[in-house]
Design a protein that fits this description.
The protein is of the alpha/beta class. It has helices at residues 8-20, 32-40, 42-49, 59-67, 78-92, 103-116, 135-148, 161-169, 183-187, 196-200, 204-211, 213-253, and strands at 25-30, 53-56, 96-100, 122-126, 152-156, 176-179. The chain is built from twelve helices and six strands. Helix 2 packs across helix 3 and helix 11 runs antiparallel to helix 12 (213-253).
């Protein structure tokens, strides 16, 4: 699965540029769960690899990028990226749409944005039901979004729903769709974020598992060990291949 070496400044600049041009794009904020979901499902692998930008949301992916030679790779964490997008949208007068989250969470998020970013314009919000939308319902959502003409749609459905929704709507929704995961809940304090030092140490998953064990135990206890083994195998192959090419090049020169 592709993960891009990027930064907050680079990601926000790209999103703002695409939004200003009214381009239909989608941005994925990737964690270990995205990688393992892509490993298990080729259809989801395509969704991730066809995204216009894939940021490393978790520190394990940042360490992975650095291990594979992407020096200077930095974390682009979904909730923080959301704040920076809102700040840029307010400064550049880019209208924002919200898609996802429970109805009361979306309402509270609109109030939160109004309080913290008064110049930001939320022109649309929708909390979809847990079931899939019918074709008519989905068409109505697309019409409603296009009528208010947002530049950016923040999508908070969680993985893999948000990535699949964005992929299905690229070319239909004339805006930049950004999958921000649990950012809606974090910004409205419905869920607690891990302390900063835990996030920097790559141990955020332990905090989230402790606070939401019923919902997340399968994800973390199944996906994380598999990721370590599979990425370790990839890294060893890459190092052996690099060493082989170095020796081969040395022989040719001699």
């Amino acid at each position: 699965m592709r993960v891009d070496r990027t930064s907050y400044a680079d990601a926000v600049d790209r999103i703002a540029r695409w939004a200003t041009a009214h381009e239909s794009r989608y941005v994925c904020v990737a964690s270990v769960n995205n990688v393992m979901e892509a490993h298990d499902r080729p259809s989801f692998m395509r969704v991730m690899n066809e995204a216009d930008l894939v940021t490393p949301d978790g520190m394990p992916l940042v360490w992975g990028l650095r291990s594979l030679g992407a020096r200077g790779a930095t974390r682009v964490y979904g909730p923080n990226l959301t704040l920076k997008i809102l700040e840029r949208a307010a400064a550049d007068r880019i209208p924002i749409a919200l898609y996802g989250g429970a109805p009361d969470v979306v309402e509270e998020l609109e109030r939160w944005v109004s309080d913290h970013y008064p110049a930001a314009s939320i022109v649309y919000s929708f909390s979809p039901p847990f079931r899939p939308l019918t074709e008519d319902e989905d068409a109505e959502v697309v019409r409603s979004i296009d009528q208010v003409d947002p530049g950016i749609v923040l999508v908070g459905l969680g993985c893999p729903k948000q990535e699949e929704w964005m992929a299905q709507h690229r070319g239909r929704v004339r805006a930049v769709m950004v999958g921000v995961g649990a950012a809606f809940d974090f910004l409205t304090n419905r869920k607690r974020q891990a302390p900063r030092w835990l996030r920097a140490a790559g141990l955020e998953w332990m905090f989230r598992l402790a606070t939401e064990p019923r919902r997340l135990w399968r994800r973390y206890l199944r996906q994380n060990p598999r990721f370590v083994v599979l990425f370790g195998t990839q890294l060893l192959r890459w190092k052996f291949a690099d060493a082989y090419m170095t020796r081969r090049s040395a022989r040719k020169e001699s």
